[in-house]
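ESCALATION

Customer reports they have been waiting on this structure for their group meeting. Please prioritize. Original submission:
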Amino acid sequence: METNTSSTLTVRIERHLLDTIKTANLTSGMPIPSEVQTVKDLQISRGVVREAYRSLESLGLIEIKSGKRPVIKDPDPASLIKFLDFHRDIGHFSIDAILEAVRGIELSAVQLAVQRADDDNRKTLNNIYLELEKNADKSFAFLSELKNFHETVILISANPIYRLFFSALYSQLTANLTEAFLSLSKKEKKKLLKMHKNIVSAFNNKKSADGAYSFIEYADALKEILLKPKHAEE
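Update from on-call: job pushed to the front of the queue and completed.
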């Protein structure tokens, strides 16, 4: 009974703190009321209040440092990565499901990014493509530039939610991508390069539909590449 009461109070305190943040229009890096202040305001024991603060910290919403007031934390995929790691490890999420999620995010992002890109953005993407092309014979460097290319598209879209979820989901594919790209043939890399060149062209020509089409081609190729080792083992 005491556990249920404590749990209910913890949720109440969390809701109180979140409402306080919302009402005061607080943003990343700004301090929130201290534990001592919240104990005084709500007349609830320090232990339960501390539990609520630790809960918000574990969710990646606030940051607590000794001797200082807690502050609102920047959006961080770390908590989401842990969540995905756990559920993938116990078989709730497959590579196929993760690929589909990444595909959906990137497809929306590339269309938005083509519309929002300025000359500097297009120049940056062109330069990354040149690095991608230059490192076609170096698997690790090629994969690094490929990730850089897609992260840049996400950034250009200027949607922070895309960025957060892309980072968390992409982390689930890292080991599989590394293994798969080490065995890519020159023909397969050339095919991937062509797709990315077409994406760059879509940015340069300001054609969202072309960018979406080229990205779909890439997403389908990536799925084939990642699932190929698994099929081979079977």
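Sent to customer with the following note: Confidence is low (pLDDT under 50) at residues 230-234.
Escalation resolved.
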